[in-house]
Design goal:
The protein is about 35% helix and about 15% strand. It is built from 17 helices and 16 strands. It holds the Pfam family SBP_bac_1. This is Sugar ABC transporter substrate-binding protein. InterPro entries: Bact_solute-bd_prot1, SBP.
């Protein structure tokens, strides 16, 4: 039996389908260990609407992807392969792409063979039988290229639904000039120290210390996980059962912490990734930015690190709740997944495993601060570890901060209702910012909303 889900985010409603059986004949397969042989019939058709030009006459696999240097990545792959060629299109990123993905799933046609997806959205599509389990197609052959946490993010039980490419180990970016001016000699190591430093800077007439942006629910989920929260429990082998725990004490503690900072005027309430927010970052309105390893690339592309905001940035490990028991968390990260609409899944899997995996593409990616790669061949290289970041004024950010954070990250279990959950989380964060609710009340409201929604879609919910 199938039931429809309406998943809203950024004002866009998507129709999702819950399947009583989350696997199909096309994506069923074995568990860990060596991959079984898969026989494929048919040949991928020649595609005529490709953005790129082919390097040879090999069968083609269509790909949707949005990386800034995607054109070069595709050319690098095609030049190295005589067995398959990529036909690439950029149909947008984030919600723009997901809308097109969902439309094609609902229509049962129109999906490419390989699609770029963020790791936290994989479950939303596997439950609709839209993605192929890659284990029978050699996923475990490349498992060793990634850390435990990165692999867990793309895995559900003994199945693998995406090949990791980049990630977002979180850290604390800060203004060295602001810290120096207000006598903060070392970045805060704990969240208690963060609050103390925020109060110190405010008392001296300085800027707000950070920001409680309601439009970054994924970041706040990560911060709750750092405190010990486990928002969801989900097993693809029991796809209509879902554990929802969004109002446990750890989740409430984090929301109360940030609500208290916001109410005291110690952090701002501006939505992030907006023109006003970036202007504030450039002009020194915020002393810190709690963000991920992709942030330097994003900030650079947005004009930060130039002019008056050049040479004033440093990065430190993410503050901890318990310095003696540090927890690393992740915000963001992309994968390449094979869709069940792929004409030739074996060839599509070759693409998913090989795209953005060659040394040239990976080097170009991180050297231009586009991505934080998850491939261990890069992460273990001396060149990457010892790199002196231009954005951070020569600081060896990878060695000092991001590499240890990525290595310590253990992965997360995401729910198949991620889009709806993020939209509801965003709504309660906005209510905190407006002073209409406390952290406790926001967590209870979010729990009630998500449980009610999940049960209305046919899930058996455990709280």
């Amino acid at each position: 039996m199938r039931k429809s889900i309406l998943a809203g985010a950024s004002g866009i409603a998507l129709a999702l389908a819950l399947s009583a059986c989350a696997t199909s004949a096309n994506n069923s397969g074995g568990g860990g260990g060596s991959a079984p042989t898969v026989e494929e019939s048919g040949t991928s058709p020649k595609l005529t609407d490709c953005t790129n030009k082919m390097k040879n006459d090999a069968p083609q696999v269509s790909v949707w992807g949005w990386y800034p240097n995607m054109a070069n990545v595709v050319d690098n792959f095609n030049a190295a392969h005589t067995d398959v060629q990529i036909c690439w299109n950029n149909v947008g990123q984030g919600q723009d792409e997901y809308t097109k993905v969902q439309t094609a799933i609902s229509a049962k046609k129109g999906l490419p063979g390989v699609v770029m997806l963020e790791a936290d959205h994989l479950s939303s599509y596997t439950i609709q039988d839209a993605l192929v389990d890659l284990v029978p197609y050699g996923a475990n052959d490349v498992k060793g290229n990634f850390s435990e946490g990165a692999w867990k993010d793309v895995s559900q039980g003994d199945k693998v639904f995406g090949i990791p490419v980049d990630g977002g180990p979180m850290a604390l970016i800060y203004r060295t000039d602001v810290f120096e001016k207000y006598g903060i000699t070392t970045p805060p190591k704990t969240w208690a120290e963060y609050a103390e430093d925020a109060a110190k800077v405010k008392a001296a007439g300085g800027p707000v210390f950070g920001d409680l942006g309601s439009n970054v629910p994924a970041a706040f989920m990560a911060l709750q996980i750092q405190k010990g929260a486990v928002p969801f429990g989900y097993d693809i082998n029991d796809p209509q059962s879902l554990t929802v725990r969004l109002n446990d004490q750890a989740s409430k503690d984090v929301l109360n912490y940030w609500a208290d900072l916001a109410n005291k005027g110690l952090v701002g309430k501006q939505d992030q990734f907006t023109t006003d927010y970036i202007s504030g970052v450039v002009n020194g309105k915020y002393a810190t930015y709690t963000s991920a390893a992709w942030a330097p690339g994003y900030l650079t592309g947005a004009g930060v690190g130039k002019g008056q905001s050049k040479g004033v940035w440093g990065v430190a490990p993410l503050p901890q709740w318990d310095e003696a028991a540090p927890v690393s968390v992740n915000w963001g990260g992309s994968t390449f997944a094979v869709t069940t609409q792929a004409t030739d899944k074996k060839l599509a899997a070759i693409v998913a495993k090989g795209i953005y995996a060659d040394p040239t593409s990976l080097e170009e990616g991180w050297k231009k601060q586009i991505i934080f790669p998850l491939n261990q061949t890069v992460l273990k290289s001396a060149e990457f570890a010892d790199n002196k970041s231009e954005f951070f004024s020569g600081q060896q950010a990878n060695k000092e901060v991001y590499l240890p954070a990525e290595a310590a990250y253990k992965g997360v279990t995401y729910a198949p209702i991620t889009t709806y959950y993020y939209a509801q989380f965003q709504a309660v964060l906005a209510k905190i910012n407006s002073g209409k609710t406390t952290g406790d009340e926001a967590a209870d409201e979010l729990q009630a909303n998500i449980v009610k929604y999940a049960e209305s879609q046919g899930f058996k919910v455990t709280q």
